Every structure is written in structure tokens, then in C-alpha cells.
Task: structure prediction
Amino acid sequence: MVSVHPFRVIHPKPDFAAKMAVLPYDVVDTQEAAAFAKDNPYSYFRIDRAEIDLPNLDSVYDPKVYVKAAENLKRFLQAGWLVEDKEATYYLYELTMNGRSQTGIVATTAIQEYLDGKIKKHEFTRPEKEQDRMNHIRACDADTSPIFLSYRQQDSIKQLIEHWKHTHATLYDFTHIYDVRHRVWQIDDPTVIQTLQSAFEKVPALYIADGHHRTESAVKIGLEKRANGTATPESEQFLAILFPDEELAIYEYNRVINVPIPENFMEQLAPAFTVEKIEYQKPQQKGQINCYHENQWYRLTVKESIQSDDPVAGLDVSLLQEYVIAPIFGITDVRTDKRIDFVGGIRGAEELVKRVDSGAWQLAFELYPTQMADLLNVADANQIMPPKSTWFEPKLLSGLFVYDLKTE
Result:
């Protein structure tokens, strides 16, 4: 039902993989990328955040950034730091964090299947972020960062992956930020490749876990090439890494608010939530939201009267927005309003306390994580989650897999 293809992977030579691999371009800013890349000529940020090699630019979207990205990609290839396989194969990419592992299949998937709804989304995208990646793909003529897809676990695929991992040597094995271990295997047996490809034809749908902007950008570049007559077989696909749903972990995506807090704030919460002072403890289940204000933690428990069976309206993040953030603080567009910011759960409650105690923010909300089943249900219902509903960890590193669109 879905097509998942092997391809000629561009990847680092083994000696360069740990030096080259970086966090995704969209979870760091320019200053952080520059700090990571300092004194490291192999850093993939020189391709994915090429502005770090161009000081004194007025904008990270300056056309020079995309030219530099393409130049650096070409330079990495000419230096032999990145190499392209001679045959189309799959790769396996395993990430292990805090004793939990997830293994994805590095492959390409069809832009037409995204257009046909077989690759399902759960978020809206922002035009300026799409345009940035489109400019990047266009200049490099390559998908330089993978899209994080998921699928409902299939026993036949699971068994094949585990058998390959246990009977073959790794290409890469190194530890990166947050002590995450990254291991990579190449699947180069034609019979196994065909078996794996056939197994995915029985999978009814794929789901975008992370990378909606990259997906939209890759698809629009493919459509652009169709329209201007430069389409290639490669441009009809996009780079992805596919993980089974049961292996994935979603962290909470917390909120901080910078607005005057009304004196009767707690009273305004009472119709929708049971409110109690607590000694800090993370939310333990759906329907529990922590609030930090004036050196005190509060537990907000969702009342039955506002609960919903709707896949989107019933999410904690939706209830917080509908009954607190919008009506009490007047923040209705969280994607653009500067009075709200978002903090990935990997940073812990300490980051929320730090931001509020600094005086830069007045209030913080810590949520129970959205569950993978929630994401799949929302996507299956063709609905959209509120912005910043999910934070996946560990992050897939960029620089390990690149996909050449091979435009003449």
C-alpha cells in the first residue's frame, strides 16, 4: 500500500561520521550551530546551517547562504568526506537513549503518496520555513536532512530488521549529544531488499512524526521540477527514515508565558480545572498539567465537564489552549505571538523554573506528553494537532544520509 525504496545513499566515510553528524538544523539557532562547528571543518552544520561560514549577514535567509551550502556539499564530496554508494540499498539507523532503542529504515518515499494521503500529516507548516528548505534543496539539488516517518509495527519487518542487526557488522557506532548511541548498518543483500520492499507494500499508511516543513518543501520541489521539465526519478521521491510506532517516545512540549498575570488567575481556572498546590512532581497521566508561578508549583487536573473524545479537542495541549491561554491571556495564534514560547521536555522542569525565576517569563506550563496513539489517531482522522504538541527524542542526526536529486 506504500512504496519504500532503496537508493544510492550519500554518507560519510566511517572515520568522519561522528565528526560530521549534527542535530537537525531546526532545533538549533545560528549561534548554537556555530558553537558546535567551531574548530571542526567536518561539521555538517556547514551544509545545513551554512550561514555559520558567512559572518555579518543581515538574514539567515540571504541567498548567499544557499549558495554556500551547495559549495560546501560539493567540497565535502570532492574531499572524500562524503561518498555515494554505487548501488541502491537500504540502511538501518538505531538510536539508543536511556536504555531504550529505536531502529529506523533509511529509504525514499514517493511524493505522490504524500499528495494522495498515504503519508499522513498532523501539523500545519509556516510558509517562510518551507521557502527556506525549498531554497536549500534547490541550491544543493539534494535532500540534505531526513524526514522522520512512522508506521504501525509489522512483525515481518521487525523480524527482518532484528535478524540483520544481529548477523551483520555496523558501519557506524558512536555516541553523540545527550549520550545517545547511534549505530548504522547497510542492507546490501538484493533478496532482503526485495523482501523488505514487499513487506512495506502491505503497510496501509506512513505518518510524519517530525519534519513537516521538510516534507512540504521536498514535495513542492518535486512538483516544481515536474512543472518546469526537470523532473528525475529521484525528484519523485524524498529522503526519510521510518520507525515503528511502538519504539518511539514523545516528550512533552511545554509552554512559558510573558504577560501580566491577573490577581484572580487561580479563580479563573476553577471552572475547567481542579487546582492544588504541590511539591514538584511531573504530570503522571493525561489530564494533569503543572503550572509554575511565583516560586510555586500547582497541579491543574482537567475536570470531566471539559473532556472530549475528539482526537484533537481532547488533547491536553488543546484544553490548555482553549480554557487558559486563549481566554485568560488573549494568546490565540501561538505560532506567531511573541508572548508565548515553547520548551522541549528534554530540558526538564529546571528550564521552566529558570525562565520564570529570571523574570523574563511570568508563568510556565508543564504537560503530560502527547502519546504516539494520539498522533496516529489525529492523522487518521485527517485533523491537525495544535502547534508544538510533540517533541521526539532522541533526535535523528543530520549528515549521515544525503539524497541526490540528480538534476541535469
About this structure: The chain has a mean pLDDT of 96. DSSP finds 13 helices and 21 strands in the chain. The longest strand covers residues 100-110. The domain at 251-369+376-387 is CATH 3.30.1760.10 (Conserved hypothetical protein from pyrococcus furiosus pfu- 392566-001, domain 2).
